[in-house]
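TL;DR need structure tokens for one chain.
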Amino acid sequence: MTGSGHVGVGVIGAGVISTQYLDNLTAFPDLEVLFVADLDLERASGQAAKYGIPQSGSVAELLAHPDIEIVVNLTIPAAHVDVALQALAAGKNVWTEKPFALDRESGRRLLDEAKRLGLRVATAPDTFLGAGLQTALRLIGDGTIGTPLTALALMQSPGPESWHPNPEFLFQEGGGPLFDIGPYYLTTLVQVFGPARRVTATASTSRKVRTIGSGPRAGTEFDVTVPTHHAALIEFESGASAQTIFSFESHRARTGFVEVSGSAATIQFPDPNNFDGDSVIFDGTDDAGRSVAAVGSVSGRGTGVAELAQSIRAGRPERAAGEQAFHVLDIMVSIAESARLGRTVDIESSFVKSPPVPEGWDPKTATL
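>> reply
TL;DR here they are.
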């Protein structure tokens, strides 16, 4: 592996989400995608051929590739930590899909191992690096709403089984709306308020069995083994608070809603699951609010991989850092514990917020 020039990338996991990643990873000039691996070798070969990637095959073959510096881990949630540890052991930096881990112990082990080896573990979501959320964060940083005090975050839907052809993992350990969707909203909230200090939550499961609604397995029933609704009050070290709902139990979809109220005004964020979208400022002068257009990159999933590559070359911390992801994991685990135990749970982890992304930064611009 070299210390200059473009950064070699290998992708583990050739499932549904890999298409969104590969659309972008193959378009970022600072990256060179060299290998796609999957347990299904035919699926890996198909994605490699589609994107003109020179090699495909097994995970072991990918990890043995000498020119791969970053492994992009797109496996199912239950495999995230094991695959990331294998990549670290092979001397590779890691970008892993969310959630960072399923429990605090394995998440801490992953961070500690990366530190011991002098490698990096960065993590989705990277949506907060996009123009939409960065513009909203800059508005708060500029004092547009005064001191941020409270927030409301809502994600309600009937559930993904109606459109996802293989949705079972989204209703098992590591899934549910809290672990599947929560990272987008909670990452946004900690970017606004900083570290959380305690949570109080409740949960429910509307149906123990659900049915696949599309694709070749439509009509197949599967078991639901995790709560499909979590509601939580989050208190932050700053003294601010947020009310959150993550639900696969609503027949009325409300997605992408994050609203932060400050001492001078309220701001409605764009959807934290996207990279673009306008912000809306409510300061009491207009009931409809004042729309502010997003400024910056809207490249999509994989943006954080490019930012990680540039950070490695520059010798600076990456913005979608593992420490932030671990804190978000800690919040999610604490929400689940609070709901199960029926009491408030203190959060012991913390992190330091990353600096804002420069307005003109674009992962499609070559820098290496």
